[in-house]
């Protein structure tokens, strides 16, 4: 096989406060014809910079690319910017993470592809249109001819990414660079796009440089893998080889930290990644019987207003008649894809969103239909958020951030500082760090601080809204371990809101699967994962990429989209019935398709 | 993670204040110009102790000399002394009206952003309506409403500056509210008022400071224009705009009487403008690393 791309001694440096700082340190790699090379690494590993260097898309004034980048034998580093414009999109195409920002929002998608074709190919308008339509067909967009004239926002995220792929393929490039193309997509949609890319690779014999942080995706799509860390090449190997016998210790750590769906089969209790850190192993069932949190018939709707007089034109049925309970020391995971209403439930429990009806009761509270938050609950229910960068005030020292909730409650400054030091030790950070500002911490440390802050008021229930989703794999594992340890030490209950099935399998006792605002299946983690009943649960579990190339399987190529919970004003939700499969395992009745 | 690149650099207070200005040339130039004006206006009269209002018709229209370094005007008053003392009035107008606009505007903007609903609609539509009128027209209308004199002029210019502060604080507050640290504070039991002082004000202060600095300059100019039209400070008190108005009729014989306060206005307004730009650059994360 011939090499399409040959990179030798690639060093990329950025100008930072007057000095050239290298971020990619002399790496060599090749992409052969018809091959998919995955570049994998954590944030800051230089994988995206490598891709941008190949495309020569870095700002020339503040960056420097050295070495040799040969595309089909031509040296790209010697090309002028004008020549590069003829190469980009023509001989090398790129697919980005966020399709919405890569497409022109005002131009019909078909026209955007046609324009790309006419820019590089000497064809007539009619021929280009026909070619563009062919491409939309090729990426399996249903009724492509009809959708040719639609603009990007009329497409769903997955469909938009298909359009991006169609555009990238339009000029039959020798190489496609895909930078985290499925990271922003829901897991069932990600599975479709990966499947599509695999099919297209065979049909078109295309070569792909695939950049990702997700070992599961690597196992699904790659022929060869290149592992990067801090701008250096750690290991390069054939995909099976890499997963079976990783040579570098960094690769091994990376692989060990990846949660794998199914790895917990046969186990009842949650399990930490580093089992040795536990004083007492987690128990399969919480010790107490009385539920800590009881939610009954929770319904949350938002009005969609439009027009001159802001009249209600439609309604988002975010959460529809949801009931669940959480025991003391228990973790209930709420899983689902975007628009399923899982985050809305979390926000309502802490009073950030209002509910229409339903009853929320925390143990110890007085009787009453408490759809609204009361101050008492604020202390017992706390929340940690997804983005550790946005959850800490950049202008507040950590000490201040941790003592603030106590000061509100009238604790003196000295006592509050003592407690803050104690909280820092609780989340395994040094109390010396209290004087620092948030930006002096890494993402993982910040998330620890957020946990400490939430624990400052001694809550009984902690809501974690995608709390580990934005973190790198190794950090993710550490935070999960910390959460499990804290649960043991403090008898905490968690409502763990996540789209990540593998993480959920690790740390939950019970799981509730949500789809379009409703719980479609709920039961013990073991029952739901090992004996899923509802078709949606099955689809969700099947869609999760498995970080094991031996278990790579073909899925049927579907174009199902996730439906929207926006309904007309007069929509009346159907009454659902729950079927009990086994004690504690319920599933919503569904129509056979 | 490149967190250090996207957040304000923390260090000693001194390096936080002075350090960034080394990188912003316009900010440095602006700061120097403003400093020169401040020294001229506030220290100057202590050194040059001539009475700015002492008339002596025999000495009218004198050229530059050691007794009168910048000459005298039609009534024999010392131009240098009048420039110095007049500058105080100009700066008072600029600073006073800016402060008034800032307090009223920022309060309105923050309250609108926090409360939402009808308060938001009312405040922001009112602000939009004010922004739709040309600045000088607004200033003239308010000056006409509040009457003549220094106090009414400051109030008129203050209200005229309200919309920009309301807009900026509204937008910035919305941004802070969108961050999860604000949500976390509310969940942890902070009242809205407490959240304003601990989270909102510190995070919007820098943007407001940049606007405020720009606003001092433009309010001095607008104030001078109103004084020129006789809508503000009344003679014989010296003020740069008024001095230009007085000198108008002698512009052929003694153009320096017109030009000197003009230069003073020019230096002051360009100084504050550059300083405002510098403050904005200083806090713009995109410019920090270059």
TrEMBL record, chain A:
PROSITE patterns: ABC_TRANSPORTER_1, ABC_TRANSPORTER_2. Residues 5-255, 304-541 form the ABC transporter domain. Belongs to the ABC transporter superfamily. Glutathione importer (TC 3.A.1.5.11) family. It is found in: Cell inner membrane. GO terms for molecular function: ATP binding; ATP hydrolysis activity. This is Glutathione import ATP-binding protein GsiA. GO terms for biological process: peptide transport; transmembrane transport. The lineage of its organism: Bacteria, Pseudomonadati, Pseudomonadota, Alphaproteobacteria, Hyphomicrobiales. GO terms for cellular component: plasma membrane. Keywords: ATP-binding, Cell inner membrane, Cell membrane, Hydrolase, Membrane, Nucleotide-binding, Repeat, Translocase, Transport. Pfam families: ABC_tran (PF00005), oligo_HPY (PF08352). It comes from Chelativorans sp. (strain BNC1). The complex is composed of two ATP-binding proteins (GsiA), two transmembrane proteins (GsiC and GsiD) and a solute-binding protein (GsiB). It is a peripheral membrane protein. It catalyses: glutathione(out) + ATP + H2O = glutathione(in) + ADP + phosphate + H(+). Its EC number is 7.4.2.10. Part of the ABC transporter complex GsiABCD involved in glutathione import. Responsible for energy coupling to the transport system. Its main location: membrane.
UniProtKB/TrEMBL annotation, chain B:
Pfam families: BPD_transp_1. Keywords: Cell membrane, Membrane, Transmembrane, Transmembrane helix, Transport. GO terms for cellular component: plasma membrane. Its main location: membrane. CDD domains: TM_PBP2. InterPro entries: BP-dependent_transpt_permease, MetI-like, MetI-like_sf. It is a multi-pass membrane protein. Residues 87-276 form the ABC transmembrane type-1 domain. GO terms for biological process: transmembrane transport. The chain crosses the membrane at residues 25-48, 91-114, 126-147, 153-170, 257-276. PROSITE patterns: ABC_TM1. It is found in: Cell membrane. Gene3D superfamilies: MetI-like. PANTHER family: OLIGOPEPTIDE TRANSPORT SYSTEM PERMEASE PROTEIN APPC, PEPTIDE ABC TRANSPORTER PERMEASE PROTEIN. Belongs to the binding-protein-dependent transport system permease family. This is Binding-protein-dependent transport systems inner membrane component.
């Amino acid at each position: 096989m011939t090499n399409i791309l040959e990179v030798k001694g690639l060093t990329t440096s950025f100008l930072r406060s007057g000095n050239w700082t290298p971020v990619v340190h002399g790496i060599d790699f090749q992409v052969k014809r018809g091959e998919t090379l995955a570049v994998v690494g954590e944030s800051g590993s230089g994988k995206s910079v490598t891709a941008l260097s190949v495309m020569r898309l870095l700002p020339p004034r503040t960056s420097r690319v050295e070495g040799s980048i040969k595309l089909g034998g031509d040296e790209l580093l010697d090309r002028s910017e004008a020549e590069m414009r003829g190469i980009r999109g023509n001989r090398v195409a790129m697919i980005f993470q966020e399709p919405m920002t890569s497409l022109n929002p005002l131009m019909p998608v078909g026209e955007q592809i046609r324009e790309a074709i006419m820019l590089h190919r000497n064809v007539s308008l009619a021929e280009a249109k026909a070619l563009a339509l062919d491409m939309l067909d090729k990426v399996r967009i249903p009724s492509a001819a009809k959708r040719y004239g639609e603009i990007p926002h009329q497409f769903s995220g997955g469909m938009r990414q298909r359009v991006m792929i169609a555009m990238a393929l339009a000029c039959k490039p020798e190489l496609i660079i895909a930078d985290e193309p499925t990271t922003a997509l829901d897991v069932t949609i990600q599975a479709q796009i990966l499947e599509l890319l695999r099919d297209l690779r065979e049909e078109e014999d295309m070569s792909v440089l695939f950049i990702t942080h997700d070992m599961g995706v690597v196992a699904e799509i790659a022929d060869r893998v290149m592992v990067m860390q801090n701008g250096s090449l750690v290991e390069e190997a054939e995909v099976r080889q890499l997963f079976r016998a990783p040579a570098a210790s960094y690769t091994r750590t990376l692989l060990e930290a990846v949660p794998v769906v199914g790895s917990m089969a046969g186990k009842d209790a949650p399990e930490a990644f580093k089992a040795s850190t536990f004083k007492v192993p987690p128990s399969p069932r919480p010790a107490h019987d009385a539920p800590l949190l009881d939610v009954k018939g929770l319904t949350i709707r938002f009005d969609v207003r439009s027009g001159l007089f802001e009249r209600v034109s439609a309604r988002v049925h975010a959460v529809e008649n949801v009931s669940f309970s959480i025991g003391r020391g228990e973790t209930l995971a709420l899983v689902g894809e975007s628009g399923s209403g899982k985050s809305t439930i979390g926000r309502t429990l802490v009073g950030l969103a209002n509910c229409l009806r339903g009853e929320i009761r925390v143990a110890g509270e007085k009787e009453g239909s408490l759809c609204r938050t009361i101050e008492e609950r604020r202390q017992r229910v706390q929340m940690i958020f997804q983005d550790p960068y946005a959850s800490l005030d950049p202008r507040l020292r950590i000490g201040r951030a941790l003592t603030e909730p106590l000061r509100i409650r009238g604790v003196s400054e000295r006592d509050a500082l003592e407690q803050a030091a104690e909280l820092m030790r609780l989340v395994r950070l040094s109390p010396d760090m209290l004087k620092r500002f948030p930006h002096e911490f890494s993402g993982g440390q910040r998330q620890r601080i957020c946990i400490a802050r939430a624990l400052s008021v001694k809550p009984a229930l902690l809501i974690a809204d995608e709390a580990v989703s934005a973190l790198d794999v190794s950090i993710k594992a550490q935070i999960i371990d910390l959460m499990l340890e804290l649960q043991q030490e403090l008898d905490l209950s968690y409502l763990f809101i996540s789209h990540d099935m593998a993480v959920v399998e690790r740390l939950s006792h019970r799981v509730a699967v949500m789809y379009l605002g409703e719980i479609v299946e709920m039961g013990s983690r073991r029952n739901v994962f090992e004996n899923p009943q509802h078709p949606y649960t099955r689809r969700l579990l099947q869609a999760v990429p498995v970080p094991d190339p031996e278990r790579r399987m073909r899925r049927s190529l579907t174009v199902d989209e996730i439906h929207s919970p926006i309904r007309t004003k007069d929509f009346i939700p159907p009454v659902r019935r729950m079927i009990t499969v086994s004690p504690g395992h319920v599933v919503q009745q569904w129509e056979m398709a | 993670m490149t967190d250090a690149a996207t957040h304000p650099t923390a260090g000693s207070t001194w390096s936080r204040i002075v350090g960034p200005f080394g990188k912003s040339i316009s900010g440095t130039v602006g700061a120097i110009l403003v400093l020169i004006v401040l020294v001229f206006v506030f220290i100057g009269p202590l050194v040059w102790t001539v009475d700015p209002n002492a008339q002596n018709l025999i000495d009218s229209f004198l050229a530059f000399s050691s007794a009168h370094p910048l000459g005298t005007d039609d009534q024999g008053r010392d131009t240098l002394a009048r420039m110095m003392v007049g500058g105080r009035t100009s700066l008072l107008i600029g600073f006073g009206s800016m402060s008034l606009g800032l307090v009223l505007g920022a309060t309105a903007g923050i309250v609108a952003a926090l409360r939402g609903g009808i308060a938001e609609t009312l405040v922001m539509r009112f602000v939009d309506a004010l922004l739709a009128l040309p600045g000088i027209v607004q200033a003239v209308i308010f000056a006409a409403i509040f009457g003549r004199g220094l106090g009414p002029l400051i109030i008129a210019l203050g209200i005229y500056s309200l919309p920009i502060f309301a807009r900026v604080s509204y937008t910035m507050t919305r941004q802070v509210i969108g961050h999860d640290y604000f949500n976390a504070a509310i969940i942890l039991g902070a009242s809205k008022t407490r959240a304003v002082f601990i989270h909102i004000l510190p995070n919007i202060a820098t943007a407001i400071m940049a606007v405020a600095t720009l606003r001092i300059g433009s309010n001095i100019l607008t104030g001078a224009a109103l004084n020129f039209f006789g809508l503000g400070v009344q003679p014989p008190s010296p003020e740069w705009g008024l001095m230009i108005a007085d000198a108008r009729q002698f512009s052929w014989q003694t153009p320096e009487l017109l030009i000197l306060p003009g230069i003073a206005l020019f230096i002051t307004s360009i100084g504050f403008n550059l300083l405002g730009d510098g403050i904005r650059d200083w806090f713009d994360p995109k410019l920090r690393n270059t």
